[in-house]
């Protein structure tokens, strides 16, 4: 093939070589958290549950500030017109045998149940991550903690919580302590396994050979890769602690008699299942809404934080 040497018809021009520009990678910018948000909000179910969860949380923590609900209040007990009103325009969730608004009782109870669940999850996750990271990186500590884990894990957690609740007495902080005193061991063991899996991978061995301190190796090379599994663990812990509180309050232990909670309301209105079913089923419905929305949002967020889903 003959190539024309006519410069007027070539249409090409020489460019200068820019070595700095040649080192740049021509690829779209990647943001991990932007990808997480894109993946999360691509699920319509997760968006719907997020809206429900935010609405429930706002109602639980704002509405009680204005109602000042007291579970032991008997101010309206002699007002027969206020007793056992079914849900209506004035009393959205109806009233009980004392004439108190179930709407106020439910949101005050939800505030207590959600508060103790969130605090217990934060404490157990923090302790579990810190102890688990040390556990998985120290062979001496591993031998000791395995014995502790074998003893505690063979005793049902709920039984430990019940025994401690009876021992320390009723109260918000006593119940929180009873829930957290051994619950962190499961998270710690889970983190220990994850750390042991990743600590011997090639990039970590190379980093260790180059003299990287053990603590920096854990905090920079291992824990950031556990974001998705931590979110998964948290999404299971939140509904679990709400269930613990509900069950214990239903049995009459843990919280005091004057502290409203969803479990306490369900226990109180169990006798009304046939005559005034709204008193029992509305707190149950709110409890189910809180648990399901927290779980679905948490699971979807866990999937979104997994970099393997960003492909």
- Overall radius of gyration: 28 Å
For the record, what CATH class applies? Mainly Alpha
What count of structural domains? Answer: 1
Helix content: 55-70%
Uncertain spans: none
Draw up the topology in text:
Layout: H1 7-10, H2 19-22, H3 32-40, H4 44-67, H5 102-137, H6 139-153, H7 157-168, H8 172-199, H9 202-209, H10 214-222, H11 227-251, H12 262-268, H13 277-304
Describe the structure.
The protein has 311 residues and is mostly helical. The chain has a single domain, classed as MetI-like fold, CATH 1.10.3720. Helix content is 67%, strand content 0%. Helix 3 crosses helix 13, helix 11 runs parallel beside helix 12 and helix 12 packs antiparallel against helix 13. 30% of the residues are buried. The model has no long low-confidence stretch (mean pLDDT 80).
Explain briefly what this protein structure is.
By secondary structure, the chain is mainly alpha-helical.
Characteristic terms for this protein:
mainly alpha; MetI-like fold
